[in-house]
Amino acid sequence: MNQDLAIHLQSLITALEDIVFEIDGNQIFKNVWVHDESILFMPKAAFLGKKVGDVMGPMAGLFTGPIDKVIKTGEAQEVVYKHLDPSIDQWFKVKMRPVVKSPDPEKCILVLSIQNITQQKQAELILHETKERLQLSNQLLDVSQELSQTAGWELNVLTGEVFWTRQAFLIFDEQVDFNPSLANTRDFFEEKDKKIIDKNIEEAIYHNQSFDIETRITTAKGARKWVRTIGSPVLINGQVATLRGALMDITLKKENELELITARNEAEKASRSKSDFLSVMSHEIRTPLNGIIGIANLLKLNHTMDQKEYVKNLIFSADHLMKLINDILDLTKIDNDKLELLFANVNLVELVINIKNQFKSLAEAKGNRLKTSIDDEIPKMLIADPIRLGQILNNLISNAIKFTEKGEITLLLKLLSIENNNARIHFSVKDSGMGIPEELQETVFESFKQVQQSAYRKHSGTGLGLAIAQRLAKLHNSRILLKSEPGIGSEFYFDIDFELASDQNTPVYLETSHSMADYKGKLTGLRALLVEDNPINTMVAQKQLEYFDVLSDCAANGEEALELLANNRYDVALLDLHMPGIDGYALAEIVRKTYPDMHLIIFTADIMMDVKVKLARLNIYDILNKPFLPEKMFEVLFKVAQARRI
Predict the structure, then answer these.
(1) What CATH number belongs to 149-249?
(2) What is the share, in percent, of the chain residues with pLDDT greater than 90?
(3) Which pLDDT score is estimated for 600?
């Protein structure tokens, strides 16, 4: 019976997947049970009679220690170990239990059952590795969110639960044990922003729409912050299950934006104040200057020989003052990006010859010789802005004459290339004057800067000419360069690309010099209303109109003008803009509606660009700027007379 029981017991043990060893209290193998002997690292019989320490080799300590503990305490022990062969990736768990306890080691029996736990161990290792990677990812996420001040959030639409990443707690200044919900998260936002939050969440849930909004919050510590909230719906089975997104602290960015807006508004306000100031100053300076130049031109028509030199000097001084005012206004327009080039077909050679003739007498008066050198290959007709190009050359030549005594000034034009219907032309103004030291050459292009050396101080001027010329060159996508040597002279040069005119034979309008006597009595039959509050300007304009044989009435303000208009018929009305009571803008609007056939000419000392824009809205485009040349007044009035067949 005992033998049968032993055989039955052995059959049951060998049916197990585990390996079972029987050892005594001296740790000597007494028996081995295994269903497949091949899984042992040595034959079964080789174990019997040997000690655990002898069989296990270097890894013996992993087993002998726990076995001693089982013998001494009677408590079961477990050891997990890897296959004794390092090249084999298998893991095992050995359970050590006492079966027979006895003070005699030879009678003491222990059982060691070894189970292959490779799959379980590998799963644990993979899980551990995944946890480590996840932990690392979370750490990196926390770092990146902290650096970018960006948090993550999620709202479970079904349960109402809200999840925050660690950075969200920092943004809201909340403790990590704070339990966020939709309600208490909403409480952080300002009242006016809560409605925005509610609306966007509703749109996201019911219409599957993402949102990106900027709002203000008050944190748990009372700090006010700007936050940007981004949210997107997540669908499950076609229904929005969660809202997921990011929360960013944009306080610094928003404050910088607000500072920029404030700075921009202040700059615009300063620009408007500057424009308003220049507009007023332009008007206030030009108004008396109009009287001076107007009276000088009237004296030019009728003076004695003894007075001729006085009149000439008076006109020269007035023109000099006029140029100074125009330079300041041009510089302001360029700096405010309000100056644009007006292109037309231009005969460049004739334009340059006219400029030379304009300065010839001035150069000769200082004992200078003014020459031109023009390349014969330059195309006849180019598309250019003759006014602004002429202004560049005028300033450069004027400057050269100013700083040259009994020398030579040369204006040179050279064709550099013709490609793709464009001609590149080199311009140079060279003089034999005193020259400019190298360390001071850059400053000559700065506004209100002149070379501050004793040799130059005797020459008057504002220092605006070269600054304006350089800015005008920039409008032409060019730059004026300078070569100069003290005592030898200076050369200012630049290159400009011009588009070729489609018709190289198109005639160019060149102003023909007329004597004022040619205009006398040429506008007989034209009736004009002059509205001007300055008595001197009224007198000058009326005398000029009389010279052209224009019948005119004068009004000192808008009310007088309306009374005259009600009782008389006029072909044209010349309106000053700045008048007490009804100003020129309001009067022009009334005349436009009440007397639509009357031609309006604005007669003003305010030449700012805003004025032209306002007048354009009233469909008024004829502007006679004060101070005006008699020829310009005739030209404007002559167009009206022609249109009315007078």
Answers:
(1) 3.30.450.20
(2) 30
(3) 92
Q: Calculate Rg over the CA atoms of the chain.
A: 50
The answer to whether the CB of 414 falls within 8 A of the CB of 425 is: yes
Q: Hey, CA dihedral for 554, 560, 566, 567, is it positive or negative?
A: negative
Q: Between 342 and 323, where is the model more confident?
A: 342
Say yes or no: domain 516-643 is CATH 3.40.50.2300: yes
- The gap from C-alpha 5 to its chain's centroid, in whole angstroms, comes to 95
Domain with CATH 3.30.450.20 in the chain: 2-116, 149-249
**Per-residue model confidence as pLDDT tens digits over 134-167:** 665 555 455 544 555 688 899 998 888 899 988 8
The CATH classification number of 2-116 equals: 3.30.450.20
**Is residue 420 within 8 Å of 498, Cβ to Cβ?**
no
Token pair for 126: 């993979």
Among candidate residues 602, 618, 431, the one with its CA nearest the CA of residue 531: 602
Residue intervals in the chain for CATH 3.30.565.10: 344-500
When pLDDT is cut at 50, 70 and 90, the band that residue 508 belongs to is: very low
Out of 3.30.565.10, 3.40.630.30, 3.40.720.10, 3.40.350.10, the CATH code matching 344-500 is 3.30.565.10
* CA separation, residue 521 to residues 299, 639, 645, 646 (Å): 18, 15, 16, 13
pLDDT, averaged across the chain: 82
Q: Backbone phi, then psi, for 10, in 5-degree steps?
A: -65, -35
pLDDT at 451 over 70: no
Alpha carbons 345 and 348: distance in angstroms, whole number: 9
Please state, in angstroms and rounded to a whole number, the distance separating the CA atoms of residues 439 and 635.
49
Q: What is the pTM of this model?
A: 0.44
Would you say 427 and 412 are in contact if contact means Cβ atoms under 8 Å apart?
Answer: yes
| Whether the Cβ atoms of residue 403 and residue 469 lie closer than 8 Å to each other | no
CA distance linking residue 357 with residue 368, whole number of Å: 14
What letter represents residue 379's amino acid? P
Q: Give the model's confidence band at 221: pLDDT under 50 very low, under 70 low, under 90 confident, else very high.
A: very high
Structure tokens belonging to residue 504: 């190289």
Mean pLDDT, residues 463-480: 84
Using CA atoms of 513, 518, 520, 521 in order, give the dihedral in degrees to the nearest 10.
Answer: -130
